[in-house]
C-alpha cells in the first residue's frame, strides 16, 4: 500500500470500476446541483430523523430476532433441555460453542456479497434460512442433533450483524452512526430481557403437541423470524438514492452529506480494497478490542440464567430475574451511543464501559451474598453492552471507502465472534464461577489496553496527515487524487 507523500500517478489516476457507486451524484430527479451550502443543520437533522423512523425500528427488530434465536439456548437449558437431552459434563458448552465457528467464518463473505447484492434481497434471504433452522430445532432430541442444528444456525445467521452495521454506514455519516448502531444493538439487550420473559411463558406449554416446553421456545421463535423475514423483502430500503420515503431534496441532502463524510474515499467495489482492509494492522487492533468485549457479552447472554439460578433462585424465577440486567444494559447502550456521537469520541467511552463491567465482575468474584452478586451481574451488562456499538462505529470510521469499511467491519465482527467459543467453556464451576469471571476481567483489560493504544496511534496519524497537508499544500480540492488509498490519504482524519 502506498504511503502519504509517495503516491504514484497510477494511484492518483486509477480508472473507475463498473460497480455501482451507492453515494454518487444525484440523478436528474434528485435535485441536481443541490449541495450542502444550501441547507442548515436543522435541515440535516430533520432528514436524519426521518431516516431513523423508516430504518431503525425495522432493523432493530431483525437483530432482536437474531439475538433471541442465538441466545435462547440458555433459556432452553434451564427449562428442561439439559435433562431431556442429557447434556452432562461439557455437552451444553459444546452445543453453545459450535455456533460461533461457522458464524465467524461466514461474516466476511457475507459482507462482500452485501456490497454486490441489494440489502433488501440478501438480508431477508439469510433470515428465512436461519428462521427455518431455528424452527426445526424443536425436533432435535439428541445431543448430536443439537450440534448439527447450531452449526447451521451459526452459518445462516452470520451475515446479519455485520451486514446491518455496514448497511447503516451507507446511510449515515461517521459522526452520526454510533447512536444508530447503539439503538439497533440495544435490540440484543431487549432480546435478553424479552427472551427470559418469553421463555417463562412458553415453558408452560410443556406437553402440548407432544413437545417439551424448551422445544416450543425454538419452534415459536423460529416461526416469528420466518414471518418477519418475508415482510423484510418488501419493507427494507436499499440505499439513500433509491429510498422512496425521501423526496428529491431530502435525497440530495443525504447524498451530499455522505460524499462530504467520505473524505474522498472511493465507493466502488475493487478487490484491492478487500486486501487493503485485510492487511491493515489497524483492522486487527479493532479486532482485539472487539474480541475483548465479546467474551463477556456472550457469557452474559449464555450463562446469566444459570448464574442467577445458582444464586439460589428457582428456574422459573431465574428466567424473570434475567430481565433487569438486560434492560439496564439497553438503556446504557442508547445513552452512551448518543453522547459518543455528540462528543465525537469513541475510545474514552470504551475504556469507561469496560471499567464499569470489570467492577461488576470483581463483585461477582468476591461476594457471596445473592443481593451483591446480582448487583454485580447488572453492572457487567451496563458496562460492556454500550461498548459494542461504540467499537463498531469506531472501526467503521477508521476505514476509507465502502468496500474497505465493509471488509473491516466483517473482519472485526467475524474474528471477534470467536470469543463466543471461549465464552462457552469458561463457566464450568458453580456456584461461584471464578474461572469465568476472571477470564472476562482479563479480556476486558485487553480491550482497555488496545483502546488506549488506538487512541494514541490515531492521534499520531492525524497529526502526521495534518503536517503533510501543510507541507505539500494539499486541500479539499484534491480529494479525488487520493480516493484509492483509503485511510492512508493525507486528508483522512481518524476518530479518537
Describe this structure in words.
There is one protein chain. This protein is mainly α and 496 residues long. It has one domain (39-488): MFS general substrate transporter like domains (Growth Hormone, Chain: A). Helices cover 71% and strands 0% of the residues. It is built from 20 helices and no strands. The longest helix is centred in the first third of the chain and has 44 residues, at 41-84. It is globular. The protein starts with 8 loop residues before the first helix and ends in a 25-residue tail after the last helix.
Shape: globular
What is the CATH homologous superfamily assignment?
Answer: MFS general substrate transporter like domains
Look at the structure and give the mean pLDDT.
84
Sequence of secondary-structure elements: HHHHHHHHHHHHHHHHHHHH
So what's the CATH class? Mainly Alpha
- What is the radius of gyration computed over CA atoms, rounded to a whole number of angstroms? 23 Å
CATH architecture classification: Up-down Bundle
Region (Disordered): 1-29
Subcellular location: Membrane
Transmembrane segments: 53-73, 85-106, 121-140, 147-169, 181-202, 214-234, 287-308, 320-339, 345-365, 372-395, 407-428, 440-458
InterPro entries: MFS, MFS_dom, MFS_trans_sf
Amino acid at each position: 500500500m502506498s504511503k502519504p507523500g509517495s503516491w504514484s500517478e497510477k494511484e492518483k489516476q486509477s480508472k473507475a470500476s463498473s460497480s455501482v457507486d451507492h453515494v454518487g451524484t444525484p440523478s436528474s430527479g434528485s435535485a441536481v446541483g443541490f449541495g450542502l451550502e444550501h441547507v442548515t443543520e436543522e435541515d440535516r437533522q430533520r432528514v436524519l430523523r426521518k431516516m431513523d423512523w423508516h430504518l431503525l425500528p425495522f432493523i432493530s427488530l431483525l437483530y432482536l430476532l437474531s439475538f433471541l434465536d442465538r441466545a435462547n439456548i440458555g433459556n432452553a437449558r434451564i427449562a428442561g433441555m439439559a435433562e431431556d437431552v442429557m447434556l452432562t459434563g461439557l455437552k451444553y458448552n459444546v452445543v453453545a460453542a459450535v455456533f460461533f465457528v461457522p458464524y465467524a467464518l461466514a461474516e466476511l463473505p457475507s459482507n462482500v456479497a452485501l456490497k454486490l447484492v441489494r440489502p433488501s434481497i440478501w438480508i431477508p434471504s439469510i433470515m428465512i434460512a436461519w428462521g427455518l433452522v431455528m424452527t426445526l430445532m424443536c425436533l432435535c432430541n439428541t445431543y448430536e442433533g443439537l450440534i448439527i442444528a447450531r452449526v447451521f444456525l451459526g452459518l445462516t445467521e452470520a451475515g446479519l450483524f455485520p451486514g446491518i452495521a455496514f448497511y447503516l454506514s451507507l446511510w449515515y455519516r461517521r459522526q452520526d452512526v454510533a447512536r444508530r448502531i447503539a439503538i439497533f444493538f440495544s435490540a440484543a439487550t431487549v432480546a435478553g430481557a424479552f427472551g427470559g420473559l418469553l421463555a417463562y411463558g412458553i415453558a408452560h406449554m410443556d406437553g402440548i403437541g407432544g413437545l417439551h416446553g424448551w422445544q416450543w421456545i425454538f419452534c415459536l421463535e423460529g416461526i416469528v423470524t420466518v414471518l418477519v423475514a418475508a415482510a423484510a423483502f418488501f419493507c427494507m430500503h436499499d440505499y439513500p438514492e433509491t429510498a422512496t420515503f425521501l423526496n428529491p431534496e431530502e435525497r440530495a441532502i443525504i447524498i451530499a452529506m455522505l460524499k462530504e463524510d467520505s473524505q474522498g474515499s472511493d465507493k466502488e467495489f475493487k478487490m484491492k480494497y478487500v486486501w487493503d482492509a485485510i492487511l491493515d494492522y489497524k483492522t486487527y487492533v479493532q479486532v482485539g478490542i472487539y474480541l475483548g468485549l465479546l467474551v463477556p457479552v456472550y457469557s452474559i447472554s449464555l450463562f446469566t440464567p444459570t448464574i442467577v439460578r445458582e444464586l439460589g433462585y428457582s428456574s422459573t424465577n431465574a428466567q424473570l430475574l434475567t430481565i433487569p440486567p438486560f434492560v439496564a444494559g439497553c438503556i446504557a447502550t442508547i445513552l452512551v451511543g448518543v453522547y459518543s456521537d455528540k462528543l465525537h469520541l469513541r475510545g474514552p467511552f470504551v475504556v469507561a464501559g469496560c471499567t464499569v463491567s470489570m467492577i461488576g465482575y470483581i463483585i461477582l468474584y468476591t461476594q457471596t451474598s445473592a443481593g451483591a452478586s446480582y448487583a454485580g451481574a447488572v453492572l457487567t451488562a451496563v458496562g460492556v453492552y454500550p461498548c459494542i456499538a461504540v467499537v463498531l462505529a469506531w472501526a467503521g470510521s477508521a476505514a476509507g471507502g465502502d468496500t474497505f469499511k465493509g471488509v473491516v467491519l466483517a473482519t472485526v465482527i467475524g474474528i471477534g465472534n470467536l470469543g463466543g467459543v471461549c465464552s462457552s467453556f469458561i463457566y464450568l464451576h458453580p456456584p461461584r464461577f471464578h474461572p469465568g469471571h476472571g477470564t472476562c476481567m482479563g479480556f476486558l483489560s485487553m480491550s482497555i489496553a488496545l483502546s488506549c493504544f488506538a487512541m494514541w496511534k490515531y492521534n499520531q496519524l492525524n497529526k502526521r496527515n495534518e503536517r503533510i497537508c501543510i507541507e505539500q499544500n494539499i486541500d479539499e480540492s484534491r480529494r479525488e487524487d487520493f480516493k484509492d488509498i483509503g485511510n492512508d490519504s493525507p486528508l483522512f482524519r481518524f476518530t479518537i
